Amino acid sequence: MNPPLVAADSLATSFPSRSRKEPSVPVLCGISLAVMPGEMVSIVGPSGSGKSTLLYCLSGLESPTSGMVTLMGQDLASLRRPRVAALRRDHVGFVFQQFNLVPSLSARENVALPARLARRPLDAAAVTAALASVGLSEHGRKRPGELSGGQQQRVAIARVLAHRPDVVFADEPTGSLDTSNGAEVLALLRSAAAAGSTVVLVTHDLEAAALADRVLVLRDGSIHTELHSPTPDAVLGAVRSAGSALTR
Ligand SMILES: Nc1ncnc2c1ncn2[C@@H]1O[C@H](COP(=O)(O)OP(=O)(O)OP(=O)(O)O)[C@@H](O)[C@H]1O
C-alpha cells in the first residue's frame, strides 16, 4: 500500500492565553490521521473546534506544539523553514475562502504566478487549459475586480489545477459563494481528486463535506467521529452530536 501523503501523529497545539498568568489554550488535542494518495477528506465541526488550525498544521503553515506532521512522507519538524516552503511550493495547492488573488494581475497572470515565483516555466497553453477547465476561457484578461466572486474562486482553482499539485488544501472554499457557484467549485475539487490529487477540505457545508471519501468531525480539537462513504444525513447527525456535546 502507498504511504499517506498527509499524516499527523498525536498532533497538539495551543495558543498563548491573553493574560500571561493563565495557561495557554489548547486548540488541537492529540490528533492522528492519514490521508492516502487521491483521497478526498473533509473536516467539519462546530465553530472554534480547530478545523482551520488543523489544516494549517497539516500544510506546514503553522507549527504544532507537539506531535508529528508528515507531508509527502517528510516529517515537517525535521525540515528547515525554506525546505517546508519549497515542499509546499512544489507539491501543494491552496484554495481559501477569500480567493487570495493578486488584484493588479489578470486572471491569466494569477494562474501563472506560482510558476513564475518558483522560476518554473508554465506555458501559455497550460494556463489556457486551466482557465478552460474552470469555464473561464473568455475571462483570462480580466482582473479579479472585474470578475464575480464565483469566477474569482474558479481562477483560484485554475491556479491550483495548472500546477497539478499532489495535495490540495481548501479552507472554506465555498464560504463566500452562492449555492450554484459553490457547487461548481466543489465539483472542480472533486474532479481534482479523481485526477489523482489528494484533497483536504475544511467546510461548514455538510452537503459539500459528504462529497468526500471520508469525513472527520472535530469537537474541541479532537476527532469526534470519522465517517466513511458519508451521506449528508450522516454528516449532519455527526455534527449535531459533536455540537450538542460541546454545549453540555
Ligand atoms: N493565532 C491564534 N491565536 C490565538 N488563538 C487562536 C489562533 N488561531 C485560532 N485560535 C483559536 O483556536 C480555536 C480554533 O480556531 P480555528 O479557526 O481553528 O477553528 P475553526 O473550527 O476553523 O472555526 P470556524 O469554523 O469558526 O472557522 C479558536 O478558539 C480560535 O480562537
Automatic annotation (TrEMBL):
SMART domains for the chain: AAA (SM00382)
Which superkingdom, per the lineage? Bacteria
Cross-referenced InterPro entries: AAA+_ATPase (IPR003593), ABC_transporter-like_ATP-bd (IPR003439), ABC_transporter-like_CS (IPR017871), ABC_transpr_LolD-like (IPR015854), MacB-like_ATP-bd (IPR017911), P-loop_NTPase (IPR027417)
Record key words, sorted: ATP-binding, Nucleotide-binding, Transport
- Record-annotated ABC transporter domain positions: 6-245
Which Pfam families does its entry note?
ABC_tran
| Gene Ontology molecular function, alphabetical | ATP binding
Q: Which PANTHER family match?
A: ABC TRANSPORTER RELATED, IMPORT ATP-BINDING PROTEIN
**This protein is called what?**
ABC transport system ATP-binding protein
